[in-house]
Amino acid sequence: QEARIREQEKLAVVGQMAAGMAHEIRNPLTSVRGFAQLMSEKMAEEQNPYKEFMEIMIQEIDQADSFINNFLQLARPKPPKMQACSLNQLILNFIKIFESQAFLQGVKIGIDLGEIPTIVIDKDQIKQVLLNLCQNALQAMNMQGTITIATRFHAAEKEVSLSVRDNGPGIPGDNIDKLGTPFFTTKDKGTGLGLSISYTIVDKHQGRIEVESTIDEGTCFKVYLPVYEQF
Ligand code: ADP
């Protein structure tokens, strides 16, 4: 835990300059994505077979954007902008975008949303956590399976949980301890930033992340967030 914090302090200093560059890259990406989206819709109307390539372009841009967001969050952590929010609604909005990405990879999204109270969170940051967990789940599954996103209210503990479950290969015990360490990755093209950022964001929300994983069965990441009394 302490080693992780020290490592992040170092990164914060080294990352300042790169963070400035990331901003400059994000703006043109946003504009390219906008036009790609427009063309993809136009192509759908015309039943143009190149539409699929357009969708892949959008996905690749989203991947780059997600990397930049993670990197910025690491290099220049922003204090969370807390506001009251319906977590279930945030999830439904997120799925609208994520579902097509999963669909192209043969993965289904299941939802199991419980009745939960309003919570106070930084929406963008929690969306980033959800995206990171879902991207990992998607990458863990090879062209089949289901990602299940669930929410629950734990009244006694005054907590809400958000879980992302996959039926991928699971995480070996040795690696469970390394989750959340910046740059820990087992993927060829991995960055090892997604979980590290997610743990930091959830920490800042006074929450925690728990992992359950069984080899050959799957993995479930559970994010617990506090529910504050309403005044
Ligand atoms: P990256 O995805 O770039 O590797 P992350 O920090 O998101 O970085 O994840 C770190 C590592 O944790 C992954 O490389 C993988 O080994 C493991 N991991 C995370 N989520 C899952 C999952 N759902 N199933 C299996 N392994 C996972």
TrEMBL record:
Record's protein name: histidine kinase
Superkingdom as given in the UniProt entry: Bacteria
One Gene Ontology term of the molecular function aspect: phosphorelay sensor kinase activity
Keywords from the named record: ATP-binding, Kinase, Nucleotide-binding, Phosphoprotein, Transferase, Two-component regulatory system
Domain called Histidine kinase: residue spans: 20-229
